[in-house]
Amino acid sequence: MKDWLLTIFTIHNLFLLSGAFLIYRYSRTRKIYWGLTLAIGVLWLATSTYYLPAKWMKYEESRQKRILPANHKEQVYIHVFGAGYILDKRLNPSQQLSPTSLTRLVEAVRLMKSYPNAVLVTSGHSRYGVKSQAEVARDAAISLGVPSSKIKVLTTPDNTFTEIKSFTQKIGNNVSVIAVSDALHLPRIHFLYHQYPHLKTYYAPTNYQIKEGQNGSVGVDFPSVNSIEMVNEIIKERLKFAKDKAKVYFLKQKSH
Q1: Which InterPro entries match (predicted)?
Q2: Among 11, 160, 162, 184, which lies 20 to 30 A Cα-Cα from 173?
Q3: Euclidean distance between CA atoms 235 and 52, whole angstroms
């Protein structure tokens, strides 16, 4: 299943489909119709106001803790996962990366300063035969001060599963690696990396959506698109995780 197909499973579409089903199926049975309409309304409020989506997102983002090598002289690869870019030649490489990709790269570059023997690995393909995301991320890293000799690129992967597969094939499956990606994304990366038992894996979560502090907003909570999108992101990530688990399962069955 292509990842873009998973975008149909969103809260917006569930509301539309549920509403259409109600009108079609129960328009003649008022009690059931209004009962289900009320249930959909409650679900909409629950997913469009901040409290419950934030609690769910906080749980998801806490599933994979930050784990880094204790030995700062260790030979380690820092694998920054791709998350989109636009090859706009008016802009410098860092501005061509999506905000998510750029935040991941900045965290990876920061880690490079703490691990002098580290090698940065960027990954991501090009859908249209132009410069790949891995190459744009490499150029952005160079502009941020990383020597080109300390960067490797994986230009063929088009999703998380193939990014990790390409890493093990071209870098190695018996090395130390720090995965740099969104906190929401890292549990799936953890699962996929652990299909290679000789890899020594570490994790550097970034792009936290839930941030708590004394200066955080405590205003009145109204329904918002941002809260719905938070739920959508969780659902999409869970579906992609299920897809990758199924792929791993069937590949194992095929190899037996």
Answers
A1: Cell_Envelope_Assoc, DUF218
A2: 184
A3: 14
Q: What separation in angstroms does the CA of 10 have from each of 4, 6, 15, 230?
A: 12, 8, 9, 10
The DSSP secondary-structure symbol of 97 reads B
How far is 18 from 46, CA to CA, in rounded Å?
16
- Single-letter amino acid, residue 7: T
Per-residue tokens: 140? 């952005």
Q: Which residue's structure tokens are 């719905």?
A: 228
- CB-hemisphere CA count at 13 Å for 4? 1
Residue whose C-alpha is closest to residue 181's, from 21, 95, 66: 66
Residues near 92 by Cβ (< 8 Å), separated by ≥ 6? 140, 143
- Tens of pLDDT, residue by residue over 106-130, are 999 999 999 999 999 999 998 787 8
Q: Which residues pair with 153 in a beta bridge?
A: 122
How many of the other CB atoms lie within 10 Å of CB of 206? 20
| Mean pLDDT on 101-109 | 97
Let me know how many helices (H) and strands (E) the chain has, helices first: 9, 5
Residue-level pLDDT at 85: 93
Of 241, 209, 240, the closest CA to residue 226 belongs to 209
Could you tell me if 81 and 97 are in contact, meaning their C-beta atoms sit under 8 angstroms apart? no
Q: Do residues 164 and 141 touch, judged by C-beta distance below 8 A?
A: no
Of 183, 203, 231, 160, the residue nearest 13 (C-alpha):
231
Measuring CA to CA, which residue among 50, 8, 54, 15 is closest to residue 184? 54
pTM of the model: 0.85
Axis crossing angle, helix 225-255 with helix 11-26, rounded to the nearest 10: 90
Q: What share of the chain is helix, strand, coil (3-state, %, to 5)?
A: 55, 10, 35
